[in-house]
Amino acid sequence: VQLVESGGGLVQPGGSLRLSCRTSGLFFSRFPMSWFRQAPGKKREWVATISASDGITNYVDSVKGRFTISRDNAKNTVYLQMNTLTPEDTAVYYCFTVQYWGQGTQVTVAS
Fold this sequence. Notes:
This protein is mainly beta. It contains no helices and 11 strands.
């Protein structure tokens, strides 16, 4: 099983990024998918989850209204659209399912 994140980078406060996590080696459509993040010196934090079949989503309070998780089962890919970014969103972002983690993608919000 492989999870490969992409789409991170440096963005100014108020900007947007779209993260992608492409998976292989599992029946993607059967499993919920999640995004986590880990800021420097902090514990890894859950950010969002999307259910397997009906697309139900949940978010940590700090990103509600700014981030959107979505999935494309035909492409075995989960996305995280991040808008109105703030420096507090700076972290390495990881996708997760079942027991598998991606390698992470760095998001840095700074002017």
